[in-house]
Specification:
67% helix; 2 domains; elongated; single chain; 0% strand; mainly alpha
């Protein structure tokens, strides 16, 4: 059964669905996790919203690329988004987590300063502050932890 291009266009509106349709389950799942994870993090740090259209368009054009390979009868390989050539460094991820955690703390601290005379506890603000602290702590753990080479 031939996979229709129109259906790939339609399903690719939601990152990962076009990949699922083409049989690329791992790649589709990675796009979905990346998209929905970014949407979730946008509620904590509003500056994450910048990445949502980038993920959507990259996923869309990636699914179309795979469909063109499919139409040319090239075997589709379900490769991960980040190849093994792109080694993710704990140091780099640690600094990213610390940066986003501090950015989130600054955003939420400014909200706190505006409302600090309020007697009621804002549980949403407390939750955001706790998640920000978790980001910073995870980043510090990654930076100070032993790498596999040291063990």
């Amino acid at each position: 059964m031939k996979k229709r291009k129109k259906l790939v266009y339609l399903l690719s509106i939601l990152p990962g669905l076009g990949h699922f349709y083409l049989g690329l389950m791992s790649r589709g799942l990675q796009f979905m996790l990346l998209f929905f994870g970014t949407v979730f993090l946008t509620h904590i740090v509003s500056s994450f919203g910048f990445f949502i259209p980038v993920i959507v368009f990259y996923s869309y054009f990636d699914a179309l690329q795979y469909h063109s390979k499919y139409r040319e009868d090239i075997e589709l390989v379900d490769e991960p988004l980040l190849n093994h050539q792109f080694k993710v460094n704990k140091f780099f991820i640690g600094w990213i987590l610390i940066g986003f955690g501090c950015l989130s703390l600054l955003e939420n601290a400014s909200d706190y300063l505006v409302r600090h005379y309020n007697i009621f506890i804002d549980y949403n603000l407390v939750q955001n502050l706790l998640i920000s602290v978790v980001f910073v702590v995870l980043g510090i753990k990654l930076l100070t932890g032993k790498s596999k080479k040291e063990i």
